Amino acid sequence: MHPHDSSKTPPSSHNPYRPLGRGMALVASLLVLGMFTLYFNNSLDARNNPNRQLQIAPGSELVLQRSRDGHYVFPGTINGQPVSFLLDTGATLVSVPAHLAGELGLEAGAQQRSITANGTVVTRATRVDALAFGPFDLRGVPASLNPGMAGDQVLLGMSVLKHLEFTQRGDTLILRALGNRTK
Question: What's the domain range around 77?
Answer without folding.
Answer: 55-177
